Amino acid sequence: MKFQLTILATMLSLSVFSQIKPVNFNDCTVDKMFVQAETNPTWKCDSVTMIDYMNKHVIDKELATIIQGRVIVGIMIYENGKTCCHDFFNLTKSDLNPLAFKEAVNNMPNWAPALQSGKPITFLKPQVFYIKNGKFTTN
Predict the structure, then answer these.
(1) Which H helix or E strand runs over 127?
(2) What is the pLDDT of residue 21?
(3) How many CB atoms neighbour CB 123 within 10 A?
(4) Fewer CB near the last or first residue (10 Å), C or N of the chain?
(5) Can you give 45-87 as a three-state secondary structure string?
């Protein structure tokens, strides 16, 4: 919970006080979403880690130019586990293509959805991706 609030506060402060502007895609249709839940959504793909998935599916030549940096992607995880890229914050000094991230997120394997009172809910997860030497890393 504290981590998610910290990420959301960071996203807000970066967009208000710096040159970094979020890219909002407005493609995710939802009546109601949560940013806090009793049980948070989890990556449930056993065949590949999320980091390996991103390294394989984000096609952007600018990634190779990044020595160290990070991006924050708002991942909407629906009740059925499907994903939608809600927004994108580029915290690197490179000109990354937000559409490459959107494509990768929108085609992710299904997640285990967030739960509230035992029922699946739509959840907006701010996911930080660290980049080192042109590859996504754990931190």
Answers:
(1) strand 123-132
(2) 75
(3) 25
(4) C
(5) CCCCCHHHHHHHHCCCHHHHHCCEEEEEEEEEECCCCCEEEEE
pTM of this prediction?
0.84
100 alpha-carbon distance from chain centroid: 12
Token couple for 95? 């000109």
Which pair of structure tokens corresponds to residue 102? Answer: 């959107």
Task: Count the Cβ atoms, other than its own, within 10 Å of residue 63.
Answer: 22
Which of helix, strand or coil describes residue 109? Answer: coil
The residue type of 123 is F
Pull the structure tokens for residue 86. Answer: 């809600």
- CA 66 to CA 68: how far, in whole Å? 6
What is the average pLDDT score of the chain?
Answer: 89
Q: Find, among 81, 129, 78, the residue nearest to 109 by Cα.
A: 81
Residue 107 has pLDDT above 90, yes or no: yes
